[in-house]
Amino acid sequence: QVQLVESGGGLVQIGGSLRLSCAASGITFSSYTMGWFRQAPGKERESVARINWSGSSTFYADSVKGRFTISRDNAKNTVYLQMNSLKPEDTAVYYCASVRGTTTIPGASDYWGQGTQVTVSS
Q: Which residues contact 84 (CB under 8 A, 6 or more apart)?
């Protein structure tokens, strides 16, 4: 069965860093664009970053450009989100998901992880 499992969330101080991991199983991982999404309290879910099958193409939301880096290791069926210079507004539940299409023309997400909480203190 398809399973995406996020890990690495936690409580950090403003300006700190975290690295989230998403381990995938049950899908042809290397054939998918993968994405990170987040949902903050009282806000809509938003796309944070995407990465294509080879890692050669990425997308970042304006709010995280220059601070977050998405990467993947197809041999380990894992996608990462390195988060630096964290701000209180980064506080959210972060989700890993498969993405149809490409980084520039994404489609629907078929598979989602359970989410991991990131809390940035102020």
A: 17, 67, 68, 69
